[in-house]
Amino acid sequence: MKYSRFEDLPVWKDALDFVVDANAFVKSSPLKNDRDYTSQWRRAALSISNNVAEGFESGTTEQLLSFIYIARGSAGECRSMTYVFERLEGYEHLKSQISDLRATAEAISRQLRGWADSLQNSDIKGQRRLTENTKRLYEAKKDREEFQKKIDRIVEESRKKQGR
């Protein structure tokens, strides 16, 4: 699927939800009384969605990959902080909420990893580097691949009908 706006990206939407959940956690936990942890936690959580957005808008695949890895690093930072929270005194009653936050950060990280993998294997170098010729070549390649898929489906259906 092709996305034209970062606001349409599922990973950005998940990261935005994570920021909201991370802030709600601050308000409902002893974290609200610790400016250092609160600041670090909120900045790391916000960094995920912001880096996805900035990378998407950057214009080249190389820059996008850099921002994806920064976002992934921030997701890792959030996961790391959840382990700290679990060990802090006064957070015992929040283990379930902390676990949910960790799981969400991990899911976001997996999405970012998958996106990075697909970009690393792509011939597209980004919007800034797309010329009319590269657009035509890319579209022709996609058309060939789609045509080959249709042929493969027809051959498979034919084999099934013949009992092979």
Notes on the structure:
This protein has 164 residues and is an all-alpha fold. It folds into two domains: 6-122, de novo design (two linked rop proteins) (Up-down Bundle); 131-164. Helices cover 76% and strands 0% of the residues. It is built from five helices and no strands. The longest helix is centred in the C-terminal third of the chain and has 31 residues, at 132-162.
Task: Please summarize the sheet with the most strands.
Answer: none
The CATH homologous superfamily of the largest domain corresponds to 23S rRNA-intervening sequence
Helix content: over 70%
In the residues, how many domains can be counted?
2
CATH domain topology of the largest domain: de novo design (two linked rop proteins)
Number of helices: 5
- Taking all Cα atoms into account, the compactness measure Rg is 22 Å
Strand content: under 5%
CATH architecture term of the largest domain: Up-down Bundle
Order of secondary-structure elements: HHHHH
Measured distance between first and last alpha carbons: 34 Å
What structural class is derived from the secondary structure elements?
Answer: mainly alpha
The total of beta strands comes to 0
Q: What is the averaged pLDDT score?
A: 89
Low-confidence stretches: none
What is the CATH class designation of the largest domain? Mainly Alpha
What form results from the Cα inertia axes? elongated
